[in-house]
Write a structure and sequence with these properties.
alpha/beta, Nitrilase/N-carbamoyl-D-aminoacid amidohydrolase, six-stranded mixed sheet, five-stranded mixed sheet, globular, disordered N terminus
């Protein structure tokens, strides 16, 4: 029986019966090329087209869910491959274990694509409903991935527009969700064209709709950029902020080693001291101070001396510790603003922590052998939430590491009237492909809220963006250096800020409308 199974007569029919499964799995992997740093949007659209065609050629929601899962698994397996660097090289896990964890994460994220595939089979029982149902349903599934179980909105397909500055401007209307909708719509139209056997009338109608939708998004970007330029000229009396980005490029493997901490700390002091021009603010990355500065008054004094020399405060990431009402120590991943006064009171504590990186979820139920992959045995505690950091020039919206990938949380800072968004991070933990992806997400937060974003990373990419998302300058990865940028003020307001919670209602309504139309078509 076994010999018969592996014979040509058995294997070939099995492969033929699974041709759509293989097609969507490979399409999911290839579709990653649509994301930063590649930005091959047509490849992303073609991958999504394959998925939709495969789903619509079967009436079973179970089949649709299976195909969606395979697409999502392949997509996230490649898209999150940078995680192997975190787990194996820096986390100390065996490569086999690291690959298994990567596969588990990819499978978990693929559940949301499985939901898309299963529901699409119900919402679009005929191909003509794909342009209405598919883009909105995809956005609903991405929204769920962004919110459920603390959320993980990494590599949403809308970030594939990162290199198209004009289309990117629609983010101030509907955020990255609207950009994802614009990415999926052409794919849904192409799937409809395929299912209609490439009829000329369908070609003309479909091509016109694709060109029209992308032209509309581009036209909005042109109009919005001109309008914002006029507003900025009217407010030219509010001078730009002169900021220094300091990238130390301290290797992760020695960053927390007591023998090298002084070397890393001195590196940031030296780079900052070498700044020869007057500036308003100096920014160091996440945990640039790799020790508890509260317990080191001598090192605190050294920072104050550099601040006095420059005549500007230093905003830096650092671990902090406080005692609670039970006299127990609590540890925080913090952002502190230090100036000549020496006060440590102007501080922001990270509130959206990385599971298994900064804390162990449900630790009381976890076996003792499960440890954090980051340095230290104690969990970090959560800060009180997205709270502005006060400063004389205007409130700063502090974002530590991956907090910048959550649009709804950054929006809360924007609504608190912050004038500058500052993301400090340490992407040395990740593989090289994660750096441009993380940068693209930070950039889009500036456009969504029309507030400049300043991003400083230990090993790069450090960069600054104005309210349009225009790059003002960058320090390339894996080099040590400083960059002085003039950051103009933003308007600090957008349609997205006012309406963000209501967009999900629109996407759900469009899904519901497609479902009703599908029911009508059956009767």
């Amino acid at each position: 029986m076994f010999r018969h199974f592996i014979s040509t007569h058995a294997v070939i029919p099995w492969l033929k019966n699974r041709r759509w499964e293989w097609a969507v799995f490979i399409a999911g992997m290839i579709a990653v090329r649509g994301l930063p740093p590649h930005h091959e949007q047509i490849v992303m659209m073609l991958g999504l087209t394959v998925l939709m065609v495969a789903v619509t050629r079967g009436s079973s929601w179970k089949r649709g869910a299976r195909l969606g899962f395979l697409f999502g698994f392949g997509h996230h397996l490649i898209g999150f491959s940078w995680l192997l660097t975190s787990l194996h090289q820096h986390g100390g896990l065996w490569m086999g274990v690291a690959i298994l964890i990567l596969a588990l994460l990819a499978a978990t994220m693929a559940v949301y694509v499985a939901l898309f595939g299963g529901l699409l089979a119900r919402l679009a029982p005929r191909p003509g409903l794909l342009p209405l149902a598919a883009p909105s349903l995809w956005v609903v599934c991405e929204w769920l991935r962004s919110h459920l179980f603390s959320g993980f909105p990494w590599n949403l397909v809308g970030y594939g527009w990162n290199n198209q500055e004009l289309i990117l401007q629609v983010a101030d209307l509907g955020g990255v969700d609207l950009l994802s909708w614009i990415m999926v719509l052409p794919a849904a139209i192409m799937a409809f064209i395929v299912e209609e056997n490439f009829r000329l009338r369908t070609w003309v109608w479909g091509f016109g709709l694709i060109v029209g939708s992308l032209s509309l998004a581009t036209g909005y970007g042109l109009w919005r950029s001109g309008e914002l330029s006029s507003l900025q000229q009217q407010n030219s009396a509010d001078r730009p902020l002169k900021v220094v980005l300091v990238q130390g490029n301290v290797e992760q493997k020695v960053k927390w080693d007591p023998k090298f901490r002084e070397e890393g700390f001195t590196k940031y002091l030296r780079l900052s001291s070498a700044i020869a021009e007057p500036v308003d603010l100096v920014i160091w990355p996440e945990t640039a101070i790799a020790f508890f500065i509260q317990a080191s008054p001598g090192n605190q004094k050294r920072i104050i001396e550099v601040s006095q020399q420059l005549g500007a405060p230093i905003l830096t990431g650092a671990p902090m510790a406080d005692k609670d009402e039970h006299d127990q120590w609590l540890f925080y991943n913090s952002l502190i603003l230090l100036d000549a006064s020496g006060s440590l009171k102007r501080r922001y504590d990270k509130h959206h922590l990385v599971p298994f990186g900064e804390f162990i979820p449900l630790r009381q139920f976890m076996p003792s052998f499960i440890k954090k992959i980051t340095y230290g045995t104690e969990d970090f505690s959560r800060g009180p939430g997205p709270i502005p950091l006060p400063w004389e020039r205007g409130a700063i919206g502090g974002l530590v590491c991956y907090e910048t990938i959550f649009p709804h949380e950054v929006r809360q800072l924007a609504l608190a009237s912050v004038r500058w968004l500052v993301n400090v991070t340490n992407d040395a933990w990740f593989g090289e492909s994660a750096k441009p992806q993380h940068l693209a997400m930070a950039r889009l937060r500036a456009v969504e809220n029309r507030i400049p974003m300043i991003r400083v990373a230990n090993t790069g990419i450090s960069a600054a963006f104005d309210q349009w998302g225009h790059e003002l300058g960058r320090i390339t990865p894996n080099v040590a250096g400083t960059l002085v940028v003039q950051v103009p003020p933003g308007t600090g307001s957008s349609f997205f800020q006012e309406t963000e919670p209501w967009w999900i209602v629109l996407w759900l309504f469009l899904c519901f409308a497609s479902w009703l139309m599908g029911i009508r078509s059956r009767t």
